[in-house]
Design brief:
5 domains; alpha+beta; 758 residues; Cytochrome Bc1 Complex, Chain A, domain 1; Enolase-like, domain 1; single chain; 13-stranded mixed beta sheet
Length: 758
Amino acid sequence: MKIKDVVCAAGSTGFYFDDQRAIKRGAGHDGMFYIGQPVTEGFSAVRMKGEAVSVMIILEDGQIAFGDCAAVQYSGAGGRDPLFLAKDFIPIIEQYVRPMLLGREADDFRSLCAQMEAIEVNGKRLHTAIRYGVSQAILDAVAKATGRLMCEVVADEYGCTVSQTPIPIFTQSGDDRYDNADKMIIKRAQVLPHALINNVQTKLGEHGEKLLEPVAELMGEMLLEPVTRNGSFLAEYVDSEKQNLIHAIESAQNDKRVYAAMRMRRIMCEGEAASIPRLGYAEDVAAITPEALTAHWRTVLRTAPIMLFYAGRRTPQEAAALFRPLFDGLERDPVSPPPTVVRRSAETVREVTESMDVTQGKLVLGFRLGECMEEPDIPALYVFNAVYGSGATSKLFMNVREKLSLCYYASSAVYPHKGIMLVSSGIEFDKLDAARDEILAQLDSVRRGEITDDELRSAKKSVASDLRAVQDSIGELEGFYLSQALDGLDYGPAELAALADSFEDLPLPIADGTYCERTAAEYAVLAGRDDVTEGQAQTAAAVFLDMDASRLRATGRSEGAVPCWNFDIDDGDDASYISLTVKGGEVLRYYSSCNGGEPVRSPEQAAETAADFLRARGYTNMRLLETEDAGRSVICTFCYVQDGVLCTADRLRVRVRLDSGAVCGFSSAEYLDTHRARTLPEDVIGAEVGRAAVPGSLQVLDMRTALLRLYGARERLCYEYLCETDDGQRCIIAVNARSGQQERIRLLDAFDSVQPQF
């Protein structure tokens, strides 16, 4: 059944929107209303009624599915989403979401949601409230169109079951939380509310200083002094947890998608610890006794390596000082874990088939990653995975699933610490060979460099967005750094996101919009240059870094799209390195996480530091194009200026740490590829005439003339006008200097990490 129409209507929520910045700055309260002026953009009062957008999907038979887009109380207050006002976001839904849904079959919730989730506006995902509400409406539409309950749709598409028992309902306490929590306990509420804390100063401290101490004490008690009876864990607790674990193991085996991937890991990692399922085996769990578990707990405390992951405002030294005493009384005899075996290649290709009574087959292909799971290739590996098989814009999803309909799903996942990649797919039995062949064909396509501009852009944005979202959750941060420890890496999520988003060593564009492998000889700056020796490259690197060449340790020559001489830098950080092109001996990339210097307080100060760094190294006629907030650092992008025109393809990127003011990163791939003395296109119409293409409702704040690479490798001379609406929304409108036609409109969001500089 097709979707006939999508209609939006404004409404109200049960929440207020509070301007937290105004409250923190002293906005008073008279017992009913907040008194004072709002501070955060979009607020007309310190407390405003919450707004919602009801999304209605109309089906061919006249049925109407509903979903409500509503934001939380703290929307617009330092979160990842701006203030959710219906008048601002109904047009977004009508312009971007409605066309995607019109005329589509309402038969696959997961697919429709994935395509909605992939929508970007000015390089950013849709507001969280929109994604939540539209997904609700899609789920309701698929349920109504197929004659199922919404829970049945979810169960069918995600391979789970509908619960046969009541699900406990979360309770909210409202005000007077301490008294109401006691009442809920007395009334046997099924799920108690979360620990909502209103007064930071008295309960937490401004920097968490009042919370960490009791948390450390509690963790120590839980880990070192659990409840025992006669020297062993309580039998009833052990039996309960055994049943929970066995149930989890059986559930994983019943989910054939999970089981197939687990089975592949067992095959590829045969003889290694990684072949053991994460939850173990049910028969081993059943054999556990309280006495044996207690003895094993004591052995783990004595022999297991201990790693502490702390995410918060306290310094590492302060956190260590609180947690280290917990272990002072322990008898410790740590045992080093065996080294992780990473197989670079497979000796033979193995094929394993298991026959089960199922309606849908599961195909998993396993690949060795060779040499590409080492620094500095990790960001490229993540971007490759996004291009190939991770997300709704990947080659596997768009081609194997959408265009050819060879599978229900197809996705890839990389495991750098094991050096493997798994491709998982759900298939009809008669399409096994065709699906496998096409999955391999898409891998060959990536290997040949057949990557479009849109594919690469979407992949980089997806990887960067997912990594930056890690910082929104303490739990995800803990998991991220645990994974980094397993992989032997020391990236922060913002650093890794910035590297992925700015990575320039994937195949580069040619005129027809496709991608191919580029060589150093094809780089414009390196044309006609001779190869340099490793020693010559080391000398050039020392001059670039302004340090003695003895502090550089050669790590060999890397072969790839651009052959390079590589050096580790002795600056107290194992992750510091510099790479120079074999042809011409130009610095291609440099990275260091070292400290030293004076902190910078703003992106503007960081940009000044970056500009001085470039000038000192002979890069002249460069102008700041944009800055990007990368968490602990700022990435400053400069472009070449010829005769007053910004040649935006000729880019240099410089990363400056905020805490030390040190330049900790440099990339020149785009500059080396495109920089040359150009014959600039003729400025035909003039900037004043070009302004006629700017809508009269916009105020022009600034203008620049730029040579823009808009489509493939073609460059067009444009006037870029920085404009502003009456309500403060800013945008950049690019107008062709020959035709006077608009070429591009870019909306600017104050919440964007990348901010252009005029």
